[in-house]
Every structure is written in structure tokens, then in C-alpha cells.
UniProtKB/TrEMBL annotation:
Gene it is expressed from: LOC110707186
Name of the protein: F-box domain-containing protein
PANTHER family found in the cross-reference section: BNACNNG10540D PROTEIN (PTHR31672), F-BOX PROTEIN CPR30-LIKE (PTHR31672:SF13)
Region (Disordered): 1-24
Superkingdom to which the source organism belongs: Eukaryota
Signal peptide annotation: none
SUPFAM superfamilies: F-box domain
Classification via InterPro entries: F-box-like_dom_sf, SCF_F-box_component
Length: 417
């Protein structure tokens, strides 16, 4: 078995959404009391409330009309979505074989919270692609449940995209682009992939759905502000590239307003394909921490040589060794600076894990297996792990709650403050 190199170091309506809410109508008594205690009103409205999870804010929406108008205002929604260090910023969203969605908040490892959002569909197979600023991208197969025996067959039946906010229980349907054929010629569907992300300013959010047919060299991008698809040719056709992971295992990893995929070019060149959502011009390539990152590719349709993830908002890459049990994890501490790749850990985990997420306050790493989440403290010898059992899940993605409405963003254009 190969091993890592020893010297490789380290449904608010549109009118409500756009109303400005005077601060004096929001819990005047509470604001007065807190002001007497030295907390300015603007700190409460712009710093404290935006840190609360969306479901906590929604629990109070029927207390008074003014509160509902306030949390439904575009200004507050944008501030809440873009506010750093939200209490729910360390969260993972899962989907099970019956399309039930569940979120786990793990920032405080001593108080892991479970939020059940319920079942999304009872008639069609649903696949979870990604999440960004509280919105979730799902793929809904046109086949009936039970007909898609393997996710790799999904593209043969046709599908559409669903943008969904689990907290608001709102979704919209985005059809496939006309003339963009997305059928896989690869037995594991590793020549096609997807991504979901957004670009933000201080008062604006714009979302993008991305579909990639890497063999054809084409990328299709749906822009929320224009509500239309743009198809661009970004790579030479029939370039010998394959995604390291099938799209239903890992889709594009969103970091720094760009989507990232692990790819193999030709027989041996392993690297990271990057599609920048700001420029949206072409796919470029980034280097991995070292050459021959991970074990050589094999005809195993489940496991790849390496994969990508996002840990605490930084791009990470991990290589598999010893049949997938040994994980060599690296973090790109300064984006697009190769010298900043830093090894986080390299351990035999004694089973395969399919994704890694953020760190808790106690510096434990959250990891995903089909039947459990596990928090592992890599600073202790031997390793200390705490599994959280929850039954079989299909996919897991990084997630943060928000009040962003897919209706507002995708039907009325970008959500502006």
C-alpha cells in the first residue's frame, strides 16, 4: 500500500422584503432597558440579532407585526446572511434516502443541536448538491422513486434543479438549460458535476447554479439576477479530464466565491479545477500540496485518490491511503498561494469517511460517515472520538441557516439592500 510522503509537511412577499422598518417600533421597552445597561440600539440591531439562528428569529415572528416586518426586511436579511461568526455557522445538513433533511449545529461541541426539517419529496429521487447562505441546491429526477437504481443513472432520466430554504420551507424550480446536454459517458458519472454558490457585497447577494460537462469543455451557469442560463466553452473538447469524485459524492466546493473540484488530467496529473463566480470566464487549475496526492486511481466507483472540503471557510484537500483508511489532510491557509498549504493531520481512521467539516470551539473536527457523524480531537494521543449516531444518510454539506427567500432571489432578481 502506498503512504503519504514523510517529508510532505505540514415567503415574505416582495413588498415586505423591501420595506425599511423604523427601529423605534421594535420592542421599545427592551431597547430602552438595554440602552440603560450600556448597549446601544444599533449594536442590538446590527450585531446581536444578526448572530441568532434563523429558526430562533422565526419563532417570534407572530409576536407582533413589527417584528415580522423587521426580520423580513431586505436590509436585515442581507445583514443576517453575511454576518460573520453566526451562532449557526458550524452546521451540517444531511439528506437521507427518503429525502428527509436534518441539520446538526456543532459549533459548541458540548451542546450539539439537531434540527429536523422534514421530508422534501415523496415521489421523485432527490439529490443534495450544495448549500450557500441558507439556500440549498437539490436535483430532482424526473424518474419515479425506485427507478433510479444508482445515482449515476440520474442524468439518463432528465431532471430539474430546486433551490430550497429549509427554514422557510420555500422552494422554486429551475429547468435545465435548452441545448445543454448533460449525459454521462462514464460508468461512475465522473465526467459531469455541479456546483452552487453566491457572490456578495455589503448590500447584495447573487446566486449561481453551475453544471459542468468536462468532456465537452462546457459550463452552464444560471444567474439569479438575470434568471437565465449562460453556456460557455471553457476547455478544449475531449481533454482527458475526470472528476475525482462522482457528482453525487462531492460536487463543487465553495470557497472564496469560487467552486473547486478535484480532477485528474491524463493518467497521473492531479490538481484542482477552479471556476470563479465573480469573473465567470474560464476554468483554471490549482496545484495540490504535493505530486501524486493520494493512492493511484482504481476502478472503484466509490473512492477516489483525493477529495476536497471546506473547513472553517478555508479550502482543504485530503489524500486517501491504505485503502481509504489513512487520511492526509491539508489546508490552504492563504487562498491561491501554494506555499500556504499546511498539513492538519495524517492518521489511520480505521474506516472510510466521506466528508470533513468545521472545527468546534474545542478544536475537534466534524467528520461524516453514512451512519454517523463523529467529532475527533486530533491533538490527543490516542485520538479521542465522539460518534453521533443518526441512521443512514446519503450526502452531507456545510450549511448555515438564513432568512433568504428563493422566491425573492430567483424570481425577482438579486436581493438588494
Amino acid at each position: 500500500m502506498s503512504s503519504p510522503p514523510e517529508n510532505a509537511d505540514e415567503n415574505a412577499d416582495e413588498e415586505t422584503q423591501n420595506r425599511e422598518i423604523p427601529t423605534h417600533i421594535i420592542s421599545t421597552e427592551i431597547l430602552s432597558e438595554t440602552q440603560n445597561r450600556g448597549i446601544p440600539t444599533d449594536v442590538i440591531l446590527t450585531e446581536i440579532l444578526p448572530r441568532l439562528p434563523a429558526n430562533s428569529l422565526l419563532r417570534l415572528k407572530w409576536v407582533c407585526k413589527e417584528w415580522q416586518l423587521f426580520i423580513s426586511s431586505t436590509k436585515f436579511i442581507i445583514n443576517h446572511a453575511l454576518h460573520p461568526n453566526s451562532l449557526s455557522s458550524r452546521s451540517v445538513l444531511f439528506i437521507d434516502p427518503y429525502t428527509s433533511l436534518t441539520a446538526f449545529d456543532f459549533g459548541d461541541s458540548g451542546n450539539v443541536r439537531i434540527i429536523k426539517f422534514g421530508r422534501y419529496s415523496t415521489t421523485n429521487p432527490i439529490f443534495l448538491i450544495g448549500s450557500c447562505n441558507g439556500l440549498v441546491l437539490l436535483i430532482c429526477s424526473h424518474a419515479q422513486t425506485g427507478l433510479v437504481l444508482s445515482p449515476s443513472f440520474l442524468l439518463n432520466y432528465g431532471f430539474d434543479y430546486r433551490v430550497y430554504n429549509p427554514v422557510l420551507q420555500l422552494d422554486i424550480v429551475i429547468p435545465q438549460p435548452l441545448g445543454f446536454v448533460l449525459r454521462s459517458d462514464h460508468f461512475a458519472a465522473q465526467d459531469c458535476s455541479f456546483g452552487f454558490g453566491s457572490v456578495s457585497t455589503h448590500d447584495c447577494l447573487e446566486f449561481f447554479i453551475v453544471a459542468v460537462n468536462i468532456r465537452m469543455g462546457n459550463v452552464a451557469v444560471f444567474e439569479s439576477s438575470t434568471r437565465r442560463w449562460v453556456i460557455m466553452h471553457t476547455l478544449r473538447r475531449n481533454l482527458p479530464i475526470l472528476f475525482q469524485d462522482a457528482w453525487y459524492v462531492h460536487s463543487g466546493t465553495l470557497v472564496n466565491e469560487a467552486l473547486h473540484w478535484g480532477v485528474t488530467v491524463g493518467m497521473n496529473l492531479r490538481c484542482i479545477a477552479v471556476f470563479d463566480l465573480v469573473s465567470r470566464r474560464r476554468i483554471k487549475f490549482m496545484k495540490l500540496p504535493y505530486a501524486y496526492f493520494g493512492e493511484p486511481d482504481c476502478p472503484d466507483i466509490v473512492r477516489s485518490a483525493f477529495s476536497l472540503c471546506r473547513i472553517n471557510d478555508r479550502l482543504c484537500a485530503w489524500a486517501y491511503y491504505n485503502g481509504g483508511y489513512v487520511v492526509d489532510m491539508w489546508m490552504l491557509k492563504e487562498y491561491d498561494v501554494w506555499e500556504s498549504w499546511t498539513r492538519l493531520f495524517c492518521y489511520d481512521l480505521r474506516c472510510e469517511y466521506w466528508n470533513f467539516f468545521g472545527l468546534t470551539k474545542a478544536r475537534e473536527v466534524m467528520m461524516f460517515h453514512f451512519n454517523w457523524l463523529v467529532l475527533i480531537d486530533f491533538s490527543r494521543v490516542p485520538l479521542v472520538s465522539r460518534p453521533l449516531y443518526f441512521g443512514h444518510q446519503v450526502t452531507a454539506v456545510n450549511y448555515v441557516q438564513s432568512l433568504v427567500s428563493p422566491y425573492t432571489v430567483f424570481l425577482y432578481g438579486e436581493q438588494n439592500g
